[in-house]
Amino acid sequence: MLELAILGLLKERSMHGYQLSKRLTDTLGGFWRVSYGSLYPSLKRLERQGAVEQVFDVQEVGRRKNVYRITQLGETMFRRLLEEAGSDATGEDNRFRVRLAFFKYLAPDSRIRLLERRRAFLEERLDAITASLPTQRDTYTLSLVQHGRETTEQDIAWLNGLIAAERRATETTTGRTKRRSTRTARRKERTT
Amino acid sequence: MLELAILGLLKERSMHGYQLSKRLTDTLGGFWRVSYGSLYPSLKRLERQGAVEQVFDVQEVGRRKNVYRITQLGETMFRRLLEEAGSDATGEDNRFRVRLAFFKYLAPDSRIRLLERRRAFLEERLDAITASLPTQRDTYTLSLVQHGRETTEQDIAWLNGLIAAERRATETTTGRTKRRSTRTARRKERTT
DNA sequence: GGGTAGATATATCGGACCGATATACAGAAC
DNA sequence: GTTCTGTATATCGGTCCGATATATCTACCC
């Protein structure tokens, strides 16, 4: 995940570790502050693999700053990691966030596929939460689970918005080719 | 974190690993499904430390099931871990969820203190998010960050509810003992 | 009986990531 | 001048994850 994030950020412009860390906490909306204990080793690993390389600015004399630039191999790695079907929609929530942050590099249909898988995952989580609700006898765990339910519902609503927008964009593009087809009725087909 | 969770669950009743895993995903509202790759080693570690011990049920003959019971030492450890001011309100979100799940074992004033620290942390996060909003030029990261902002706001509102409820409970209790003293003015005294 | 499918149950390995900690230099504040 | 805050890199021990392997129990069908 970290490798994907680093490569994705370095695609935009070359940076050093400290900057990467800041940009990362920014684009991830405050969740997941990367630890330097993972960032710097990861950066070195990527350099060893030839995915990134150091940029030596002649201007900079005094202060030590390890500025990295993404290589061709790094670009390829980035594509592979981004496309990879892995446990991205599933599993830890930040996994999905990182992928979403680099959605612009993904093909529209891949985007929709990923969003839908994420939604399916969250709907499963929602079902599990709802099922576990009546078993909560403790005030605090009850509140915790209820709040979790609401948050999950809002996450799903947000995803629905993203999916709809993505479809609209696709439709407009294809619509330019094949005129009429203002159909928006989509089949929900919940696998329950 | 896992140790705290295990001990807290074993306080209610003795269980084996598989049961612990299920109960944990339940009480945590679907976030954080513990991996067996951390659960079983953790259980062994706790046994080695004398915090838990195996229960041998004579009835059970066939199937191997390692049922664990919390010991006196384990109870002490649980107290320590729960009380511990560590990076609980701060840092990873599940840390806080686990603590909240065992709030009933915490003194009311400790509860309020923890909730307020959590709120302060989330407010800082909210500020950071708001500050980073105008820098987002990408549609997707913008949406991501905006959604993060809303989620954080709702988290804070939820915390406010919990804090209010906690205060109401405290007030009623102390009111019964020492009549007047509707003092609610709290000194924030941020240790910055 | 035989087959197999799915839930229950434990275990381990390599590696990703964290949290704490140390170090050092820059610029501003006073 | 000194002190404080922000920038910057580095490393260590340890927790936790994800994949994988294995075995048993229950339930169902043929």
Write the topology of this structure.
The structure is a homodimer of 192-residue chains.
Chain A: H1 2-12, E1 15-16, H2 17-27, H3 36-49, E2 52-55, E3 67-70, H4 72-83, H5 93-101, H6 108-132, H7 139-175
Antiparallel strand pairs in A: 1-3, 2-3
Helix pairs in contact in A: 1-4, 6-7
Chain A binds a DNA duplex (30 and 30 nucleotides) through α2 and α3.
Q: What report would you give on this structure?
A:
Two copies of one chain form a homodimer. With 192 residues, chain A is mainly alpha-helical. Chain A is built from seven helices and three strands. Chain A has a three-stranded antiparallel sheet. The two termini of chain A are 31 Å apart. The first copy, chain A, binds a DNA duplex (30 and 30 nucleotides) through residues 1-2, 16-19, 34-42, 62-66, 87, 91-92.
- Largest beta sheet: strand ordering of chain A: 1-3-2
Q: What is the straight-line distance between the termini of chain A?
A: 31 Å
Q: How would you characterize the largest beta sheet of chain A? A: 3 strands, antiparallel
Please name the two chains that share the biggest interface, counting residues whose Cβ lies under 8 Å from a Cβ on the partner chain: A-B, 38 and 38 residues
How many individual β-strands of chain A?
3
- Report the order of strands and helices of chain A: HEHHEEHHHH
Overall pLDDT metric of chain A: 85
The oligomerization state is homodimer
Which structural category do the helix and sheet elements of chain A fall into? mainly alpha
What's the overall geometry of chain A? globular
Q: Count the DSSP helices of chain A.
A: 7
Radius of gyration over C-alpha positions of chain A, nearest whole angstrom: 21 Å
Give the helix level of chain A as a range of percent. 55-70%
Query: How big a fraction of the residues of chain A is strand?
Result: 5-15%
Poorly predicted parts of chain A: 181-192
